[in-house]
Amino acid sequence: PSSATAPATRAGAAGQAPARPVAPAARAAAAAAAQGQPAPSMLDVPLRLLATGIGVVASMVQLTFTIAAYVGDRVLPAVVVRRVKGLFRSLLAMNAEPPEPRLQAQQFIAEFERKYGQQHPNWVAESWRQAATLAHQQFKFLFVYLHSPEHDDADSYVRHILCSNEVVEYVSEQFVCWGGDIRRPDAFNLSGRLSISTYPAVALLAFSGSRTKLVAAAQGKVPAPQLLAALRRAIDEQGMLLMAERLDREEVEMSRRLLQEQNAEYEASLAADREREAKRQDEQRKLEAENRQRAAEEARARAEAEAAEQRRLQALASLAARRQQKAAALPAEPAAGTPGIATIRVRLPDGKNQQRRFDACRTVQDLYDWVDSLEGFDSLQYNLVCAFPKKVFCRNCVGSSLEEAGLVPQGALFVQVLDE
């Protein structure tokens, strides 16, 4: 800004008339009076001299930095020169009006892809605050990468760690991702807020707005396996934050829906009242027809109930006969500790567990016969299922031995009811 002020000051001085030795203050007052303007004060000359001096100093500073850069390129190490130049560019840009955060994010993505290619985390082209809001809405953590091109490890970290296949796939699937260059205000402010001191740096943020919270951070060139382990550990330890947030959101949404349903029911009730009032005159004529219809429906309902009761009694009789028949056909239970036996535990639909021993040579059909014989079990159609590993022993495979079915020396099954 100072160097921009100096040329304007000199241009203004160049446009003035040559000075004469006779009464300059009086001449200036006369000129101002001729133009209808107030006469300049006694402070104008010192202020103009001060502005000119500031412009000269700024020009000298810029010239000094130019000479220093020229000499540094030939004397200092390349790393030092690059950092000094980056600092100088940042100083020159301090007074420039920064673009809005969304444009900063778009510029970062464009520069990142131009230098490192298309394989990278799925960066969000928004400010980090808007990205945090988006992650909050999806009940995810926000994965933040803060990029510092002036640091030696930046290129190696991006190419071999951040943009590796396993890191890109994991973070893009698990998180909302945002990246920023700390030379831009949005990323720089976030870096200060997170107290980042070493680059490159990544962080996980939860929630948004004033509730934004740092969940985890990794500073420096952390290898990909350690980075992924830290991210997974953060999800395991802090994932309950998002779970609680989801439950709260669902509770609010449920309350909103309940209120809407209540309002709808109330409106429906009012409509029904109006309809009943409109039909009140017709009710007398329809009363007899409704009574006849009601009587017919009651008779039909009684007939259906009697038929259902008959079917229930027949089913109970069939179950009792099946239970008795299956119990009689069961082989004797081997004694505990007998070699070559299978101990089978079955969980019934009512939650009760039953256990029995079988010879390993017995078949899956014997298991079905045993379950059919159990007191209190009244399902006709069902499958026996092993929970882990998941396997269904349906009626089509009852000929397999218990050893072939993988139920020796023991097996845990549950009943999957298929009755309509």
Between the first and last Cα atoms, what is the distance in angstroms?
84 Å
Low-confidence stretches: 1-40, 91-95
Characterize the largest beta sheet: strand count, sense, and whether it forms a barrel.
5 strands, mixed
> Whole-number radius of gyration?
42 Å
Residue fraction in strands: 5-15%
Mean pLDDT: 81
Separate helix tally: 11
Give the helix level as a range of percent.
55-70%
Structural class by secondary-structure content: alpha+beta
Shape: flat
Order of helices and strands: HHHHHHEHHEHEEHEEHEEE
Number of strands: 9
Strand sequence of the main sheet, in spatial order?
6-5-9-7-8
What does this molecule look like?
The chain is 57% helix and 13% strand. By secondary structure, the chain is of the alpha+beta class. Strands 6-5-9-7-8 form a five-stranded mixed β-sheet, with helices on one face. Strands 2-1-3-4 form a four-stranded mixed β-sheet, sandwiched between helices. Helix 1 packs across helix 3 (44-75) and helix 3 (44-75) packs antiparallel against helix 4. The longest helix is centred in the middle third of the chain and has 106 residues, at 224-329. The model is unreliable at 1-40 and 91-95 (pLDDT under 50).
